[in-house]
Amino acid sequence: xxxxxxxxxxxxxxxxxxxxxxxxxxxxxxxxxxxxxxxxxxxxxxxxxxxxxxxxxxxxxxxxxxxxxxxxxxxxxxxxxxxxxxxxxxxxxxxxxxxxxxxxxxxxxxxxxxxxxxxxxxxxxxxxxxxxxxxxxxxxxxxxxxxxxxxxxxxxxxxxxxxxxxxxxxxx
Length: 172
What we know:
- By secondary structure, this protein is α+β, with helices and mostly antiparallel strands.
- The chain has two domains: 9-38; 42-167, Beta Barrel (Cathepsin D, subunit A, domain 1).
- It contains three helices and eleven strands; from the N terminus they run αβββββαββββαββ.
- The protein starts with 9 loop residues before the first helix and ends in a 5-residue tail after the last strand.
- The model is unreliable at 26-38 (pLDDT under 50).
């Protein structure tokens, strides 16, 4: 019979399980942080002359994404200076309860698409506010709202480096 004390390996095994769990959580945190850093950032402020300024950071795909609202309801816009109007997919327009005006055909990157004209009572992006904005409701494959020139042309636009600066006119 062996009278030497035996060593219980269970505490060591539990320690390795805890270390693995902590490592997995750290890895997931790093993954989610990396995914989040791929998005553009938005900063809204007022300058010393009273101008509302929104600064958008270009995302990893080269686009500018703006958080805003249509008629007081939050929406995410893809900024598109090549789009004539603010453009919304049909599903988003129905959720917002928009009026579907005359039907038209619009040209998109994917070719001609059936659409409806409408007016948005109020569009906001940060401190930038515009009322009675012309918009297009598109049928088809468009998944995001576009912040087009029917909104953007009323503001000063400046692109510098990886940022797009959108500013209101100064107050007198």
